[in-house]
Amino acid sequence: MSTSDTGFSCFLKLMYQIQDLCKSLFPKAATKMFDIKAWAEYVVEWAAKDPYGFLTTVILALTPLFLASAVLSWKLAKMIEAREKEQKKKQKRQENIAKAKRLKKD
């Protein structure tokens, strides 16, 4: 892909490559596949004619993914905090053991 290609034409080239790959892997199913270019043109036309409806649909479609991402991020943060707390506890315990051993030697 050359640098003069627009983002949309790069997207179309990629979609055609995927379509060709699918046709070679699944020759019987290739007749049932829809036309990627026509679909992409439809989406672009829809976005141009009704931008608010398009954005609303995209946001509604992505909202569950954003929510799942937020929940998983929160869980990961809690796990990291618990691990750090446990490591600090172990480190303090090791320091106390070392301190007790030093006091016994004296």
From TrEMBL:
InterPro entries: Smim15 (IPR027877). This is Small integral membrane protein 15. Keywords: Coiled coil, Membrane, Transmembrane, Transmembrane helix. The chain crosses the membrane at residues 52-74. Signal peptide: none annotated. It is a single-pass membrane protein. It comes from Castor canadensis (American beaver). Residues 85-106 are annotated as: Disordered. One of its GO terms (cellular component) is membrane.
